[in-house]
UniProtKB/TrEMBL annotation:
It comes from the Bacteria. This is Transcriptional regulator. Residues 1-59 are annotated as: Disordered. Residues 1-36 have a biased composition (Basic and acidic residues).
């Protein structure tokens, strides 16, 4: 996944980021800062755009 590519995120994560971005814009942040904060928050809460686990087998 290239930097900035949001295709690995679920629809729910995308909606959450959009909602956070709107909220940040209402607080007066620029579009770029609001988007950055929104995706950073989604990544922190949900672990990013991972579709599966770490790839390691559990024993």
């Amino acid at each position: 996944m290239t930097r900035g590519d949001k295709s690995a995120y679920t629809d729910k994560q995308k909606r959450k980021a959009e909602h956070i971005e709107d909220s940040e814009r209402e607080k007066g942040r620029s579009k770029e800062d609001a988007e950055r904060v929104a995706w950073a928050t989604v990544n922190k809460q949900d672990g990013g755009g991972k579709k599966s686990g770490s790839g390691r087998k559990s024993s």
